[in-house]
Backbone:
């Protein structure tokens, strides 16, 4: 095998100072570098306009656990859709931006979830604001079955309700239309369906005491607005000033003299007693991510992480902080650092800060997450009009493009996939716009010179970080086809992803759970594979498995990294 390698031997003593230089061992193997790619893949037209490929059904002998090493050693697990895309369009054209879909009444059946997986869904989100545990359990198990039977690696994200103020259900109606000037009653009484006409339940007992006549009431982040005109005991009468559609359990905020009233909100816990029950449910069902709504500080994230660590082996659930409140913006860096990822939850964010500030906040959160090496999801209203219509507005396409151009790790559909009429079409728009903008960005060589500060906390981590920074640079300069990273913890894969290299990153991990979680990160193509500390053996095995499947070819140029050896090799696939 022609390769050129560089190994960094990690010092045994972790206290060793950062300034001492590591020991370098150049490879004695002959070098044959192919500097220019000649593979047909580079000339294949981009897949943006093509329909999604049909997944190849894989026999997964090792995805379920409890299978002998000997059986597992011979196989490799890769996402069926990615495999088909790679074969059809080559390395360069794989999508780097990951896609999250909220599962709801429009998408909860097995065939509907499968259609989303085929369409490129990387993460399925369930929102605990809605539905019962039985409903969520069915969805989660369907996703898992799909992964096991059809070779997908769709991760599951559970999103907590949080204890902010919201409306109740609409007495069984999916939505209710409000007209300009109509008077509606918001009541803290425990009203049972059928609700009196133009009456809405509010979940927070202090609501009728807290609001004042003249306050402005924003429902669902301002999609519908009311003015408080009268208080009658538990009932608050409001006149509609901006008409629209009320959806069940929509969030409510109220504003006075142009500012958000949030004294009481600040007293409410971030994780309510109901949220803890939902979290126990999520742990029991083995979700991959828990997204925490209305995070105010890093403490709550640390608290949840230690709760999870005490309850699950190897802490296999990642915690995502939703940035959607003024408090989360005040403590942004420490919240992001405490979390395993963040979400720019623009829906509620837009109700807490003036709308015109949302784009710059999005930009800041995306940047900080990348700098601190945490995956970031841009969420809410990306394709809102597609809830009702089969094509997006031009403005929506521009919004999606901007998030892709900012190199966010992932984009999220909410109502578009949960209760819209065109979930698959909305996903297709996200996929094709992502592919097109990513390609444009590469062709124009517009890599932003984003400064990536050190994130390492030990010398060994520092070496990994330097290796990844160098490998990404080498990958771009040499025009390699892919970077391979063998990772036990996922750390080196995410450090590589942080560099946003031009080529895709094949991340090999021994764990199915880590493989699913890596599926949220920009540019990572996660594989499950049993491997050892011997890179030569790992590479030979990977090359032969991937060649057998037609995913790589002889002559492809790859850079291979390992976090066990902390090594870099540049290799032509034999
Ligand atoms: N599990 C569910 N059951 C019923 N309806 C749901 C469910 N999940 C989502 N929805 C519907 O999809 C809409 C959009 O989803 P999402 O943005 O996650 O929630 P919200 O609007 O409450 O923030 C919700 O308002 C709700 O009408
Ligand atoms: C994603 C969001 O949270 P949720 O849909 O749970 O309100 C949001 O507010 O943008
Ligand atoms: K939520
Ligand atoms: Mg929200």
Residues:
């Amino acid at each position: 095998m022609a390769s050129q390698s560089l190994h960094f031997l990690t010092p045994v003593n972790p206290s060793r100072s950062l300034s001492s230089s590591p020991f370098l061992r150049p490879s004695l193997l002959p070098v044959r570098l192919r500097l220019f790619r000649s593979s047909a893949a580079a000339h294949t037209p981009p897949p943006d306009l093509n329909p999604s490929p049909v997944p190849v059904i894989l026999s997964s002998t090792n995805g379920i656990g409890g299978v002998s090493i000997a059986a597992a050693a011979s196989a490799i697990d890769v996402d069926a859709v990615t495999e088909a895309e790679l074969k059809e369009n080559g390395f360069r054209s794989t999508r780097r931006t990951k896609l999250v879909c909220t599962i709801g009444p429009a998408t909860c059946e097995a065939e509907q979830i499968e259609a989303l997986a085929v369409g490129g869904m990387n993460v399925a989100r369930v929102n605990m604001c809605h539905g019962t545990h039985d409903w969520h359990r069915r969805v989660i198990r369907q996703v898992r079955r799909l992964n096991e039977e059809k070779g997908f690696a769709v991760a599951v994200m559970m999103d907590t309700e949080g204890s902010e103020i919201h409306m109740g259900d609409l007495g069984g109606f999916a939505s209710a239309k409000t007209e300009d000037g109509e008077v509606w009653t918001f009541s803290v009484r425990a009203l049972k369906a059928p609700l009196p006409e133009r009456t809405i339940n509010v979940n927070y007992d202090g609501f009728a005491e807290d609001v004042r006549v003249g306050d402005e009431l924003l429902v669902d982040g301002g999609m519908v607005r009311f003015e408080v005109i009268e208080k009658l005991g538990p009932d608050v009468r409001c006149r509609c000033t901006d008409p629209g559609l009320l959806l069940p359990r929509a969030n409510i905020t109220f504003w006075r003299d142009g500012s958000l009233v949030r004294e009481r909100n600040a007293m409410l816990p971030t994780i309510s007693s109901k949220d803890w029950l939902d979290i126990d449910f999520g742990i029991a069902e083995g979700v991959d991510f828990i997204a925490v709504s209305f995070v105010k500080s890093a403490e709550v994230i640390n608290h949840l992480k230690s709760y999870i660590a005490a309850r699950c082996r190897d802490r296999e659930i990642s915690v995502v902080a939703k940035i959607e409140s003024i408090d989360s913006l005040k403590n942004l860096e420490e919240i992001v650092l405490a979390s395993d990822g963040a979400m720019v939850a623009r829906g509620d964010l837009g109700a807490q800060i003036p709308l015109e500030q949302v784009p710059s906040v999005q930009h800041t959160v995306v940047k900080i997450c990348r700098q601190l090496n945490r995956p970031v999801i841009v969420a809410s209203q990306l394709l809102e009009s597609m809830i009702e219509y089969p094509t997006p507005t031009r403005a929506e396409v521009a919004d999606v493009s901007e998030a892709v151009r900012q190199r966010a790790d992932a984009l999220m559909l909410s109502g578009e996939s949960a209760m819209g009429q065109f979930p698959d079409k909305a996903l297709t728009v996200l996929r094709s716009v992502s592919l097109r903008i990513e390609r444009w960005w590469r062709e124009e060589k517009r890599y932003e010179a984003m400064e990536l500060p050190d994130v390492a906390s030990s010398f060994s981590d520092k070496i990994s970080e330097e290796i990844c920074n160098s490998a990404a640079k080498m990958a771009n300069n040499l025009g390699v086809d892919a970077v391979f990273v063998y990772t036990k913890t996922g750390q080196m894969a995410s450090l590589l992803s942080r560099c946003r290299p031009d080529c895709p990153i094949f991340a090999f991990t021994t764990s199915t759970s880590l493989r699913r979680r890596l599926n949220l990160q920009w540019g990572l193509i996660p594989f499950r594979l049993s491997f050892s500390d011997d890179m030569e053996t790992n590479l030979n095995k990977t090359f032969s498995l991937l060649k057998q499947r037609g995913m790589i070819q002889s002559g492809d140029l790859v850079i291979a990294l390992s976090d066990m050896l902390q090594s870099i090799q540049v290799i032509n696939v034999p």
